[in-house]
Amino acid sequence: MRHTLRVLGVGLLMAAALVVRPVDASAQVVQSLNLSIGAFLPRGEDARVANDVWLKDVPIYRFEVKDFTGAEVSGEWNFAFGNRVEVGLGGAFYQRTVPTSYRDYTNPNGSEIESQFKLRTIPVSGVVRLMPIGNAGSFQPYIGGGVALINWHYSEVGDFIDFNDNNNVYHARYVADGTKAGPVFLAGFHAPIGGDVWAITVEGRYTRAEGDLSTNDFLGSKIDLGGTSLRFGVLLRF
Length: 238
Known about the structure:
This protein is mainly beta. 10% of the residues lie in helices and 60% in strands. The protein has one domain (2-237): Porin (Beta Barrel). It has helices spanning 2-20, 53-57; strands at 29-42, 70-81, 85-106, 112-130, 140-162, 168-192, 198-207, 210-212, 222-224, 227-237.
């Protein structure tokens, strides 16, 4: 992971240097605020890390990984250097609770053995956007990348079966949290609204990271925090 982040950082700096070179050294730095709402889509079952807890849970519980797709809100402060490079620092919030029950087991009275799985992430990211064409008053497509520091919290709460104790049903709350860093890759565009002050923004982000879980509490030793964010927002330049 450290090697990946180092290579990503060096690559972005080199690309930024190539783009910035033709920009006038006296170009004004323009600041902007971007507020967005969208959705976070976790990585699918075929792409998740080994020993991921959801991969272990899916055969036993009634849910699918895609059920954790949910709303995400974000905000970012940006610094544009000329018309070609923009550096951003921002944060986002995502939380999703998925109710579930055992696929093949019920209570003695026939009712479902129910629980709730919940994931919350608060990523803080620093990114660089490279804009090959356009300016603040026109359509600006871009690509870029950076690093995200993801604060995460995961829990499984409800009724569970102790298969080592005559299938006894008991109530419990299993919780894990932490902070992990991972690379971010992004692409999108700015579309002006009647001038160079306001703009509509559309962006897709792909993040890679994983958290560590205790196998004494969970079926898997990892939780894959990676996925795709689709963001739609408004940008105000100062």
